[in-house]
Amino acid sequence: MEWLMGFGSRFITQLQSPTLAFLIGGALIVAMGSRLSIPNSIYQFIIFLLLMRIGMKGGIEIRSAEIGEMLLPAVFSVAVGIIIVLLGTGFFSLLARVRWSDGTATAGLFGAVSSSTLAAAMVLLEEQAVFFEAWVPALYPFMDIPALILAIVLSKLGTEKAGTRTSASTRILDVIKESIQGPALSALVLGLALGIFARPESVLEGFYNPIFRGLLSVLMFILGMEAYSRIRELKQVAHWFALYALAAPILHGLIGFALGYVAHILAGFSPGGVVLLSVIAASNSDISGPPTLRAGIPSANPSTYIGASTSIGTPVAIGICIPLFVSLAEMVFGV
């Protein structure tokens, strides 16, 4: 009962936080019929700045960290991405009315990672003075890329069974290239490289850190606007996608928490790091995933995987999963 009260209190606090408040505000303003729009170029620029900051901060920490400390969490990140795609694909394969390509694309998007959800969780932990290793955001590509690759390969295997044969090895190389060249991973990898091999501390403290939370609030507002607009698309597809989008983030986050707890026992992974691994697992890609899946699984209906992810998956990950796993860590670790 005490834990439930703690979660309820944290959930209400999260609703009042700038992160979720701007998300809800964006949805409400579209619901009211506003014609306000944010140019896509501004959206991409905000993503670039946020991920550059996350990458540089992680790279600076990696520079002085023991590689051995990262090894087990990185391996578990790969495992979580693969498990999520396999579970999602298995679920949708049981539904006769759901096309194979739609199911694999949705599973791939939920196996990939949302940088905005990651950023929101980091801000919350920093506000509450919960320690986490600064290299934890560097786990992003370890989960993101394997999930996208596996989803596309599974989709292609299903297509081959239907009689159309393609080169799986070629597709794997293509999706790796597309993922790395995408705006999200490109910015994150660049920030990591600068943090590891350069000395960007002055520009990080003087420019990126002061604007980080302000830019995050704008990003949440944009995602709220898009989430509401995608609800109409989601109405056009089977209700199973909505059910999956409601339950999957929580289940995936619990898988991440369980493996993070193992890493805590075996390698000293911090409780804050366990929370972030859980949130990464609970998130679903809103930047790198959609364009990669559109190119890799062109037969899939974007209304299924993007609609389910943006309309339901992201709000659940941010509004429910972040306070849920912070509260769970408080119960398990006493943080």
TrEMBL record:
Q: Does the keyword Membrane apply?
A: yes
Which parts pass through the membrane? Answer: 12-30, 42-60, 72-95, 107-125, 137-159, 180-198, 210-228, 240-259, 304-326
Q: Which InterPro entries match?
A: Sbt_1
Entries under Pfam families matching the protein: Sbt_1
Lineage top rank: taxon = Bacteria
Alphabetical UniProt keywords: Membrane, Transmembrane, Transmembrane helix
The molecule here is called Putative sodium-dependent bicarbonate transporter
Q: Which organism is it from?
A: Salinispira pacifica
